[in-house]
Amino acid sequence: MQLNTIKDSVFTIIKKQQQEVHLSTVNSELQACVAKHLSKKEPIRVLEAGCGDLSRISFGSQATLIGIDISKRQLEKNTCLDEKILGDIQTYPLKEEYFDVIISWDVLEHLNDPEKALNNFIRALEKDGIIILALPNLISYKGILTKLTPYFIHVWFYNYIVGDKTVGTKDTQFSTYFRRIIAPNNLIRFFKNKGLTIVLSKLYEGPVPEHIRNKNKLTNFIFTVLGGLSKLITFGKYNFNHSDYMLVIKKNT
Hints:
By secondary structure, the protein is α/β, with parallel strands linked by helices. It has a single domain, classed as Rossmann fold. The protein has helices at residues 3-21, 25-38, 72-77, 114-124, 141-148, 151-162, 184-193, 207-213, 217-233; strands at residues 44-49, 63-69, 83-86, 99-105, 125-136, 197-204, 244-250.
């Protein structure tokens, strides 16, 4: 298949997915970044690390999706995967230089030793492959409060503030460690020291704070004031409303 044909087919998939699931601007940017990279590759092997019960990015019909998770129940619920691995991404011996894409979404903050998982990803990634990370931003109101509060507070928050009564039931919420290495600047430094290239780095307001902000005019006003205040006291360096972080890293040939 010619390169232009591959590009057309990939971006057709993106457009269809945007219409069906109403991707946010940030997710659309990520999908376009992935499509641009994968237009040169077909077929591809994708590892969804800590995959849970759903997949968040479309990789096209020529992708083999392999998921690894510590929860057997979540793996069984994920109908998108071609292969399922029950294991811990910090310790499971992934095949060396095997995957074209490794994606980890809202997982690293729940690991006791995320650096082990990151090194595992790098070893398992093909040359010219990419790692996609999405996670809460430690340097934010959400990150700081999550770091400083115990697990039962997290469950209560999702049950009664967000309105998700499933959180706290079996395999739906895990302890949050928020190790320092997963702060945005630390992650970037870690990958650069390993010789990898940063393709995309994005801070943004995630779905949970956005949901709370949009409850009414008062919460929207409070968030706006808090965001402005954080920028003021950090001389424009940080907006603490940017609760989430997205990173795409390329392993050089």
